[in-house]
Structures are given as C-alpha cells and as structure tokens.
Specification:
This protein has helices spanning 5-12, 31-40, 49-61, 70-76, 84-88, 93-110, 116-137, 144-152, 162-180, 190-200, 235-246, 254-271, 278-292, 297-300, 302-309, 311-324, 328-365, 371-382, 398-404, 409-424, and strands spanning 223-224, 227-228, 388-389, 428-431, 435-438. It is mainly alpha-helical. β4 (428-431) and β5 (435-438) form a beta hairpin. α3 packs across α11 (235-246), α15 packs across α16 (311-324) and α16 (311-324) runs antiparallel to α17.
Length: 454
C-alpha cells in the first residue's frame, strides 16, 4: 500500500473549506488539493479499503475538517454538528426529574434478587418483545407469540411469510452478538455498525433495491419521506465522527449514557448511511449503548417497546426532529416512555417477589400434617386479592375443582370450615356470607390505601 503520509502533508497545505473526496480532484482549486486527489485516484466508489483507510486517517488527524466540505454540510444539515452539550443544555428541570427517575429505577432493578429461572424468563421475554417491536415498526406483522415460536425453534412459517421470519431471526442474532461483547471494552466502531446492518439485512435480497448492499454505505442520494440524507460522499466521514462522539462511555454517569443512547439513535437516523435498515440498525446501536452502560438487558429493551406501542407518535417525533433539526422533543418523548416502561417493569418484578414471599409465609403459617392442611394451603395460594364469590372458587383451578366440586353438600361445608380457619389465621378476609379474598397486603411493609371492588 502507498504511504498515506504524503497525502496528509498535502492536506495540511489546504485552505479552510478545501474539498477532499475519494473520487478525485474534480473540485480541487489548489495544487495541494490536486495532489491529494491523485492519492485517491481510482477509488471511484469510495469502498476501496485504501480509500476508506485514508479517510479514517485524515478524519482522525483533522477531526473538524472531516473529509468533506464543512460549509456544505452545515448548509444542508446544520443539525449534524455533534454538539451534545448544546442539546443537553436545553433540558429543563422536568427533563432532569424524569432522567433521575430512570436512573433510580435502573439502580433498583439492578439490585433486585430474583430466582434464576425467573430472571431468565424476564430476559427471554424482553428479547422476544424487543425483537417483535423493532421489526413491527418496519412493517413486520408477526405477533409476539409467533416471534416467541421462532426464538424457541418451534415455529416455521410458510414460504410466503419466510422473509418475516428471516427479519426476526436477524434481529435475534444481532441482539445476541451485542450481549456477547458484554464485559469487554466498549467498541462502537464504523466496522461494528457495518456488521450490524449486514446482519439486519442478511438474506433479505428480494426485499432490497438493486443499489442496496448490506453493510455498505449508500452510493446514491436517499432519504425517508421528505428528509434527504447527507450526500453519499459524506457518509464515511460522518460515520467516523458518529462513533467518535457516541462511542465514549461515562462509567459513573448513567444519566449521560441514557441521553447518549437516545441521541445516537436520532443522529444515526439523521445520517442515514445505509441504503436500507437504518431504523433497525439505529435502534440496535441505542440498545448497544444502554447495555454497555450497565442498563439490565430487560430494561434496555423498553425503549424500542415504547417506540412500537406509540408507533405513530414515534414516527411523528422523528419527522419533526428531522424537519427542524431539533432533538429536544425526541429526547422528551423517549425519556417519558422509558420512565413509564421502567415503572411497569418494576411492578412485574415486585409481583414476582410478592408471590415468593406470600408462598413462603403461607407455608410458615399453615401446618402441613394432614390432607386438610394441604387443601387449605392450596386454597390460600389460589385465592385472588380481589373479592370473589365462594361459589366461584371451584372454577379458579383444576385443584380447586377437585377439592370443592360444585361447592355443595359436604364439599361446601369443607370450604366453609377452611375459610373460617384461614380467617382465624388472618390470611383471608370475608364480607357477608359469600365474598372472600386473600389478604396479600399484609406482606407489604408500607401498603398504599386500597379500595376493593366487587
């Protein structure tokens, strides 16, 4: 390979605003620019390894100059300034409260003890929901149950729907690849982003336009709706700047890392470097930053789940941000959904913990010696916390049906004796002659006031 340093020396002689591309010195107006053009001669498509390496070298040593006409980029895409401090400076006190709540709830989730099989179930379910969400945003109509079947290997779709199965499988593989890198130094690089896009579009050739090459930057002007992405000759340099800006992790600053993940998602959509799959790739990058910043994987999937649940608003916020070049609205939209998702996730975890604690307490309070004792334990573990009519207890489960039948005759008397004994132990509450419920609230140290409805 030719020594790149003569080109760097020539670059140093360029005036501000000089033009350098891998395609030659067509717009060069100085002898230095012409000489640099000669270094790149022959790299017409910009994908030659030497040309890309030269771009990276020049970008690394002349970061603000990049490998493009700065003035033209600023005129056409002024929002691509990578000035995160300017954006963060616009956050107001309510934004910081929401962000603080997110950080607090993430810390809470990280410290929650769960049985290994329950934790594994949460991880698995979050992967399935996150995969279904990011593909659904792009028009994939498979349900969560179908995605679960694909994940478990129990579902094979007919040939007419095979492409949707491939889309799902590609995202599952990409997520697993991200998890495989946990515990290692964060390595958000241009090559890694190319690999993500290559995986997203793997074996989807029939759905792609002829000019789209998975993992390769677009060679034609493109965009989404009314938004036009930067010109193809700028994409390599903008991608290098992207990883330099968003690839720096702040170990002890969860708030900064959450903002960094959301902005990386938005900036990647703005740059739109690939011919297809930019949305899915951008959401994978957001997920990558979150999990490498210490966000538990079930929680890291909550953002994409929020985007899918509010898909119309998600697309509207992206359009608004792209039209105005203003990121604040999208940040607030993302943080609000993230906080809601974390609250719901903590409720799920608390319910698992309450089930375990309630089961242990029942076994501690109730004797286990006779068949009657075991029947009462089954009843306590089945009764809901909401009011239920006694005659409906046999319908709660097969075991309740076996114990109490239709709730008549001798079995009705057995149910009455069991409920009376459990009321003496202060485990159930009754109302009138027919209504009963479990007193699970006794397990809560500081329960909220609650109204029970019939």
């Amino acid at each position: 390979m030719t020594d790149p340093w003569p080109a760097l020396q020539d670059l140093a002689e360029l005036p501000d605003g000089g033009w350098v591309t891998p395609s030659g010195p067509e717009r060069a107006n100085t002898r230095s620019a012409a000489r640099i053009g000669s270094h790149f001669r022959g790299q017409k498509d910009g994908r030659n390894p030497y040309g890309c390496a030269m771009q990276r070298i020049i970008t690394r040593h002349f970061g603000d100059t990049m490998v493009a006409d700065r003035k033209l980029i600023c005129e056409t895409h002024p929002h691509l300034d990578f000035d995160l401090q300017r954006i963060i400076g616009k956050l107001v006190w309510s934004d910081w409260l929401t962000l603080g709540e997110c950080c607090s709830k993430i810390d809470h989730i990280c410290g929650v003890p769960l049985a290994p099989h329950v934790a594994e179930q949460l991880h698995r379910l979050s992967l399935i929901r996150g995969t279904q969400a990011t593909t659904a945003i792009e028009g994939n109509t498979l349900s969560e149950e179908q995605v679960q079947g694909i994940h478990d290997g129990s579902l094979k779709l007919p040939p007419s729907q095979a492409y949707m199965q491939r889309e799902v499988e590609n995202i599952i593989v990409a997520h697993n690849r991200i998890l495989q890198g946990l515990g290692q130094p964060e390595n958000l690089s241009v090559d890694f982003i190319r690999d993500l896009n290559r995986q997203v579009l793997k074996d989807l050739g029939g759905l792609l336009e002829d000019h789209v090459v998975p993992g390769e930057f677009s060679t034609k002007p493109h965009g989404v709706a009314n938004y036009r992405a930067p010109r193809p000759e700028f994409l390599e340099a903008l991608s290098v700047r992207f990883v330099e800006t968003f690839g720096q992790r702040h170990e002890a600053e969860m708030a900064s890392n959450i903002i960094r993940a959301v902005l990386a998602h938005l900036y990647f959509v703005w740059i739109h470097p690939f011919g297809d799959g930019n949305g899915r790739t951008g959401r994978l990058i957001e997920h990558y930053i979150l999990v490498h910043s210490g966000v538990p994987t079930p929680a890291a999937h909550l953002l994409v789940h929020h985007y899918n649940k509010t898909r119309s608003l998600y697309q509207a916020e992206l359009r608004k941000a792209s039209d105005t070049g203003e990121a604040l609205g999208f940040i607030r939209y993302a943080l609000g959904g993230f906080a809601d998702g974390l609250r719901s996730h903590i409720e799920v975890i608390q319910q698992h913990q309450l089930d375990v604690a309630w089961r242990d307490y029942i076994h501690e309070r109730c004797p286990h010696k006779t068949e009657t004792d075991k029947r009462r334990i089954d009843l306590m573990l089945t009764l809901p916390v909401e009011w239920i009519n006694r005659r409906d207890i046999p319908l709660l489960s097969a075991r309740m049906g076996a114990h109490y039948g239709l709730g008549t005759g001798a079995r009705s008397k057995a149910m009455t004796r069991d409920i009376n004994k459990l009321r003496e132990l202060k485990l159930v509450e009754t109302s009138g002659r027919n209504r009963v419920r479990a007193r699970r609230e006794i397990m809560l140290a500081c329960p909220r006031p609650r109204t029970y409805t019939s």
